[in-house]
Amino acid sequence: MARDLLALSDGLLSGEIRGVDNQLLSMATSNELVSLGDDLAFVESFANVTAIRSGGELTLIDAGSVLYAKEVHRAIRSWTPNPLTNAVYTHGHVDHCFGVPNFESESGHPKTNVIAHEALPARFDRYKLTNGYNGVINMRQFRLGAPIFPDEFRYPDEVFTDSASITVGEVRIELHHDKGETDDHTWAWLPDQKVLCTGDLFIWVSPNCGNPQKVQRFPREWAAALRKMEDLGAEMLLPGHGLPIAGADNVKMVLSDTAEFLESITAQALELMNSGARLDDLIHDVKAPEHLLERPWLQPIYDEPEFIVHNIWRLYGGWYNGNPATLKPSRDAEVALEMAALAGGANVLAERAIELADAGDMRLAGHLIEMAALAAEDNADIQDTRAAIYRKRIQSETSLMAKGIFGWAEHESTNAAKALREGSPEQ
Ligand SMILES: [Zn+2]
To answer: What 3-state class would DSSP assign to 360?
Structure first.
């Protein structure tokens, strides 16, 4: 029995339903298909897929992830046997564009016309160049056991620059490009049905606009795209991740709130940059508006506002952060050894790190334990302390991205301590 996704969505937006883990919702993998009218269906997956059938044809907006393409194919085939004539990739992230070959390999199935923004093929090319890096960072971000990242992609057959439109039987689909989470984003608008497919420009959590380990994002352009969508009068929003949203007021509310969230962070960061501030000032002084941080659909549980600030600095500035010591720095380990010598030993730094962590200052504790561990790499007790501090730090963080990176550090030190005690080199 399919869950009522629209009722859940409605309850969350009105505040009647609370205590639901939006992280789980935004990363849902039920792969259940929900019919949203005669010609329209939505598959809840990681990432979601929208299907439109009409005139004996089928079009998909997004096509399933590298992990769930098979399940998405099965769900769509339970709804329609129509050949997949068109597929739109909202962007080239690997959770959105892996399902097409499952349809094309059906016997007698024609080749699908895959449509995407013109910047998308270059993304796939880059993924081939940085396959190892992407494997490692996704292990950190998603706590995977192995570096899994694809190196073969179903490239688009047709690309567009600003906008395009397709017609599936009776249904007209407008495609619009705006930068946002990526430089290759497309959002889709079905004017007759008043249905909006946002791709990842809306995902039920704080925008993935700061991701520490990934390439440039575009908060200002993202907000502008949301404002454009807000004016359409959409009655249904089908997001890249998370639940479908019904009702013009609900759609307008989430688009407007997310735009305001990005606009505020961008304006604050630019004001400080323009006044000559250092990156350090931006990191500590720019804050997301409190009233927006309370919204259930803007929780900083995947990405977070502080990381967006770094992206703004990178977008509009250079890589120099304003601190001259970091322009041509010593090796981190050299600084750590010097500090340990001044303090009276790496142990002193580690002990102070514990005190700071116990007092709740996880940021400062992080600096000191890194120095202690770098100054005394072969000290298993210090590795234990480092693991314990990051274990504690994970508890105090909200975002999957921060938890993933600190979790990786904990894992490194747990392994290092074990290897040191066993007297064998670290694996
Ligand atoms: Zn996505």
So the answer is: coil
pLDDT per residue as tens digits for the range 79-105? 999 999 999 999 999 999 999 999 999
From the CA of 361, how far away is ligand 1's center (Å)? 33
Look up residue 421 and give its two tokens.
Answer: 């005690």
| Ligand 1 centroid – CA 64 distance (Å) | 10
Query: What's the gap in Å between 276 CA and the centre of ligand 1?
Result: 35
Around ion ligand 1, which residues have CB less than 5 A away? Answer: 47, 93, 95, 200, 240
Is the separation of the CB atoms in 85 and 112 below 8 Å?
A: yes
Q: How far is the CA of 200 from the centre of ligand 1 (A)?
A: 5
Q: How far, in Å, from the CA of 96 to the mean position of ligand 1?
A: 6
**Ligand 1 centroid to residue 99 C-alpha, Å:** 14
Q: Are 239 and 48 in contact (CB under 8 A)?
A: yes
Strand partners, 158: 115
SS3 132: helix
Distance, in Å, from the CA atom of 314 to the CA atom of 279, rounded to the nearest integer, reads: 10
Domains observed in the chain: 5-263 (3.60.15.30), 330-422 (1.25.40.880)
pTM (whole model) above 0.90: yes
Amino acid at 236: M
- Name the phi and psi angles at 167, rounded to 5: -125, 130
